[in-house]
Amino acid sequence: NGPGGLFGLVHTHLTCAIPNTSYYEYFPGGSRDELGREIGLLNPPVPRDGKVTPPNRPGWGAVWDWQYFNSVRVAEF
């Protein structure tokens, strides 16, 4: 279950790093497609032309919606 949330990016990296992996589970239009966006992730992995590519950014490559985080903040300590 690769797509959705940060674990989608983690699974994308792992899938590309393991030489004997032949598939990446993806359900177009499924609820997990929106899971990343629901928690403020702007770049959940989406296969293109039958291939998935990890982001070329530091760490897992996540791009976060800081405006969203600020809008749902309850308190700041």
Helix run count: 3
Strand content: under 5%
Radius of gyration: 14 Å
Q: Given the C-alpha coordinates, what overall shape results?
A: elongated
User: What is the total number of structural domains?
Assistant: 1
Uncertain spans:
none
Total number of beta strands: 0
How would you characterize this protein structure?
With 77 residues, this protein is an all-alpha fold. The chain has helices spanning 5-17, 31-38, 66-72. It contains 3 helices and no strands. The mean pLDDT is 84. It has one domain (5-72).
Secondary structure layout plus pairing:
Blueprint: H1 5-17, H2 31-38, H3 66-72
What would a concise description of this structure say?
Helices cover 36% and strands 0% of the residues.
Task: From the structure above, extract its key features.
single chain, 77 residues, 3 helices, 36% helix
